[in-house]
Backbone:
């Protein structure tokens, strides 16, 4: 009986951190330049961040409404399904140096230890005038889950005269989707 309760407890804990889907809707007239970090809040590892490309660029006016949103189903399947695929991820498992893992590495598969024990946590980004290398002054931040923790400091809402952004998560049954929305 103890073994069954232990297994059930581990399964429930894994589901609480299950990676889920990530969706970036950029409704603004500016290009998003940033990265995406997923972590485990109980100890801060594993931690996973996009490595190649190191900076994701999501063009202005790219959202679900026109099918140009940045959508990540999971670490592995995003490579074939995303308009902005990540070739490899930088994975930190503890105090040892981080390792680069290709998108198809078995450790990143859905239902695996890393995906079951991380959740999308934050994006460090800056907005650029569309199609240029020119930053929109002051439209940059670390946006993410604002739940107090010792791993990452971020806010879930940001506003400037040039636009605003928000981060939120919706869970329906066993499906979790984390959104980063950027507005004009």
Residues:
């Amino acid at each position: 009986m103890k073994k069954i309760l232990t297994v059930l407890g581990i399964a429930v804990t894994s589901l609480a951190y299950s990676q889920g889907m990530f969706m970036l809707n950029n409704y603004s007239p500016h290009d998003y330049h940033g990265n995406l970090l997923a972590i485990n809040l109980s100890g801060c590892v594993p931690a996973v961040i996009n490595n190649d490309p190191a900076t994701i660029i999501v063009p202005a006016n790219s959202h679900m409404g026109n099918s140009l949103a940045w959508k990540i189903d999971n670490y592995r399947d995003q490579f074939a399904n995303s308009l902005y695929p990540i070739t490899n991820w930088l994975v930190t498992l503890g105090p040892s140096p981080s390792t680069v893992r290709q998108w198809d590495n078995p450790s990143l598969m859905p239902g695996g230890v890393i995906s079951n024990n991380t959740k999308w946590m934050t994006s460090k980004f800056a907005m650029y005038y569309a199609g240029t290398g020119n930053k929109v002054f002051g439209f940059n931040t670390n946006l993410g889950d604002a739940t107090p923790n010792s791993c990452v400091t971020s806010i879930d809402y940001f506003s400037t005269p040039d636009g605003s952004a928000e981060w939120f998560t919706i869970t329906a049954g066993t499906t979790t989707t984390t959104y980063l929305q950027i507005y004009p």
Notes: The longest strand covers residues 119-129. Confidence is low (pLDDT under 50) at residues 1-16.
